[in-house]
Amino acid sequence: MLNANYSCPQQELYTIARAGWRSYLVHQSNFELYKPKYTAIFAQERLDEIETAAELPDDQARNANTEELRIRLTQAARVCLNLFQTLKRYIADAYPVEVQKPHIEAAGQKYYDKAKNDNWDSVRGLLTSGTTYLKQHALALSSNGNRPANFTTQFSDAKANFAQLHNSFLSSEEIARVQTQDKIKANNELYAKLMGMFLDGQEIFKDDEAVKRKFIFSEVLYLVGGAGTSGVKGYVTDAETTQAIMGVSITILNKNRNTLSDNEGRYEMLQIASGIYSLQFEKAGYETLLIQNHEIKIGTIGKVDVQLNKIVASE
Predict the structure, then answer these.
(1) CA-CA distance, 101 to 107, in Å (whole number)?
(2) Which of 36-45, 236-245, 273-282 holds the top average pLDDT?
(3) Cα separation of 289 and 253, whole Å?
(4) How would you label 137-175 residue by residue, b for 16+ Cβ within 10 Å and e otherwise?
């Protein structure tokens, strides 16, 4: 699995890259003196690559079809499970009580519990067993008007419909994985080229701090993202029950910032300058928790989930 080499949201990456190459164009002659490859055309090629990467499907676009198929699969599975329950009723009328259990198991009962929890392979196993059972016991099930003549067809159609949806779902997931890899690969490539140019820019303008900052990734990230995207958030839960704790006081020590967790245990503090901080979590009845040396990075919102221990009363 290919991993992203950049530590910011991809839309910010594109904005930083565009800004970086525009700054390059302003100082293109300096770059070309440093390395002849740094022409105006070189920058345009990089800008074109940014737009090509940006136009590749994002998360929502990649997963929309898969999510739709997941919903349809869930609906189809409910139909199949209901048909299986109906089959069990036909078995109950067709056979004496003492032999119903092995017949129900032969019809696919062992798959049922996982199938009802959206385990698609188990749904298919249930349907395959049920179809085989219906063929093998057609006469016994249909005697005395016990089973409608079209039930086997209903079951077979449900099996075919689910199989088709499941295959489409698996194909959609695979396509989405490939598209994700293509997106990350394109982003990594433009990031690598941008960072190469940035490092050269830092060397070219090492004696001009103002211009040099135009070619420092974190500085450009701060400008395009703003301090508002920097901060910390998370959940506070009870260490024993894992239930959310409301009203926990979260304080960034040595900085005048404090907030309270909400009724779902969530908290969030934004517009925090980058740096190393200590976070303190306090609530009556719980032991105070101190987390030291938490780094808040420019343009990112760090996630810190904590569990608090109740104070045990001394006897």
Answers:
(1) 10
(2) 36-45
(3) 12
(4) beebbbeeeebeeebbeebeebbeebbebbebbeebeee
- Structure tokens given for 260: 């309270």
87's tokens = 């089959």
| Max Cα distance, the chain (Å) | 97
β-sheet with 257-260: strand ranges across:
257-260, 249-252, 275-282, 289-296
Place of tokens 């890899």: 181
> How deeply is 282 buried, as exposed, middle or buried, from its count of CB atoms within 10 A (0-12, 13-18, 19+)?
middle
Tokens for 205, please give them.
Answer: 């303008």
- Angle formed by the axes of helices 97-106 and 120-136, nearest 10°: 120
pLDDT in tens, 112-159: 999 999 899 999 999 999 999 999 999 999 888 888 989 999 999 999
Query: Residues near 10 by Cβ (< 8 Å), separated by ≥ 6?
Result: 4, 58, 183, 187
Cα-based distances in Å from 260 to 48, 196, 240, 278, 292? 46, 43, 21, 16, 19
Instruction: Give long-range contacts, CB 8 A cutoff, 24+ apart: 145-153.
Output: 146/90, 146/93, 146/94, 147/90, 147/94, 151/83, 151/86, 151/87, 151/90
